[in-house]
Amino acid sequence: MPAPTLLILGQSTHDHVVPAKPGPWRPRMGGNALYAAAGALTVLPPDRIAVVTRRGRDYPFDIEATLAAAGVKCVAVREVACEHLVEWLVYEGDGTRRSLPRNPELRTAVGEGSAASAAYLERLEALSPELTDVPPPWRASPVAYLAPQVARHHRATVRALAGAGAGAGAGVEVIVDPSPHYARQADVAELRDVLDGARTVLASEADIVGVLAAHGDPRGAAAAMLVAGFPEVVIKLGARGCWVADGASARALPALAAEVVDPTGAGDAFGGAFAGARATGADLIEAAGAGLRAGSLVVGVSGVADALRAARIAAAT
Q: Which of 71, 172, 238, 254 is deepest in the core (most CB within 10 A)?
């Protein structure tokens, strides 16, 4: 099987989205890997996209069929022995979100405002893909997008794909969205240690609270990350757009107007579209623009299946 143009590694989730306004919710398929695929579909044909993810033994949704319905057939799903993580995604009126485990054995593992417990992180790690899950031919994809994962997996996969360590796929352009579980309180040096080899770091403000506190604002945070050795930095600002910077320039890009039905997955769709655009030869600003368009598309629907469908329609028009 030939290498696709874009390789996406990330999680598949079982979500219960609790909206800010009181109302019913229902369990549904989610996950940063699948929303990233939706974003990528806005800029790439489906046969140029590969998705690698994991599922627990009790995962109730058909990942392969859902992606195949959108035309994405390069899909590798590893089933692991643990139960899948089920999460409440609780939105507040100001747009902030908390993720709380619904699994009984993990329900007390994460408290409001606390760091994730060892048990919770172990479950996240078990459900996070790593390089061994990637079919060898796919490791030669020109661009790889790593959605938020645990630190150990990000560190090893970035180094292997980018050629900073042993492994196939040396020279891949690696784009990483850091997980708040390791990045929220990290300083720039600690981020560099985990993500050494990444070409682009795509981080939301909530992902890099410590870096923002140390350097004042997105402009200062991005400048510090460039000095640390990251070639490109994108800081996602939600409804305010994003800040983009490389060695030549730095600027803010505004968000696009959108009617928000459900904000879940917007940042992941941004990442998938950004990476997909880079795979077509787009520069930093063009790729960020593609990310903003994908994010505005995804907030207008609810759930992975609708996001994938909307992306295919948008790409065809």
A: 172
Euclidean distance between CA atoms 53 and 78, whole angstroms: 7
* pLDDT score recorded for residue 121: 82
Q: What percent of the chain has pLDDT over 70?
A: 91
Q: Does residue 35 sit in helix, strand or coil? A: helix
What is the sign, positive or negative, of the torsion defined by CA atoms of 291, 297, 302, 305? negative
pLDDT in tens, 215-256: 999 999 999 999 999 999 999 999 999 999 999 999 999 999
CB proximity list for 19: less than 8 A, separation 6 or greater: 25, 91, 262
pTM (two decimals): 0.91
| Residue 44, domain member (yes or no) | yes
Question: Which phi and psi angles does 117 have, rounded to 5°?
Answer: -75, 170
**Does residue 1 sit within a domain?**
no
Number of domains in the chain: 1
Rg of the chain over all Cα atoms, to the nearest angstrom: 18
CATH assignment of the domain containing 233: 3.40.1190.20
CA distance 152 to 130: 9
Residue 244 lies in a domain: yes
Q: Is the pLDDT of residue 92 over 60?
A: yes
On whether residue 31 sits in a domain, the answer given is: yes
pLDDT tens digits for 250-286? 999 999 999 888 888 999 999 999 999 999 999 999 9
d(CA 271, CA 184): 18
Residue among 289, 308, 229, 299 nearest 262 (CA): 299
**Range(s) of the domain holding residue 203:** 6-316
Q: Are 199 and 175 in contact (CB under 8 A)?
A: yes
